[in-house]
Amino acid sequence: MSSRRAILRLAPLFGLAGCGFRPMYGPRPDTMTAGLETVRVGLITERNGQLLRRHLEQRLGRGGAPARYDLRVGLSYGIEVQGFERDGTPSRVRITATANWFLYDTNLPPRLVAQGTDRTFDAYNVPENQFFAADTARSAAEQRLMEQLASDVVQNLAVRFESGPPRAG
Domains of the chain (ranges plus CATH)? Predict the structure, then answer.
């Protein structure tokens, strides 16, 4: 009786075995990893752009593979004050970061093979009369934003590479 229950618990997994299902956040297949390793990330201006580039390079796994694609990313911000103290000073700030990215092949002339836009947001509190704490909170929020944007961009690239190498269309 207990073996029947064990089989029934595993039945949903057996049903997904032949349909091509693969977990999105699990280990990536070698074909996807090989494709992502061929992406070179272009320079992104300003401090947060440098952070984003570093996170992208870490997630793409740039090893010794020759570059076949150039990733160009434009980064923009929107800042919105969400809360105010009685005297009118801000008490909570929301930052929205947007990455517009373009993937080009390395042919001459380069051809656009994929593009996308990823957006994420974060917020932080501005403590009263504590400049250092407010600056630290802002810096931590920006770090989280760059990590999330890098994850989103690489996830979109991985989906694109899943169906084979991107080609100009």
Answer: 24-162 (3.30.160.150)
What distance lies between CA 111 and its chain's CA centroid?
23
Q: Facing residues of 11 across strands?
A: none
The overall longest dimension of the chain from CA atoms, in Å, is 70
Here the tokens at position 97 are 């970061």
| DSSP SS3 for 42 | coil
Tokens 């630290």 sit on residue: 136
Q: Please give the structure tokens belonging to residue 112.
A: 């656009």
- Whole-number Å distance between alpha carbons of 82 and 95: 10
Residues 6+ positions from 118 with CB-CB distance below 8 Å: 98, 99, 101, 149, 152, 153, 156
Question: Which H or E element spans position 102?
Answer: strand 90-105
Condensed to tens digits (0 to 9), the pLDDT of residues 31-75 reads 445 578 889 999 999 999 999 999 999 999 866 778 899 999 999
How confident is the model over 79-109, as pLDDT tens digits?
Answer: 898 888 888 888 888 999 999 999 999 888 9
Which pLDDT value is given to residue 31?
47
Encoding tokens for residue 82? Answer: 């969400």
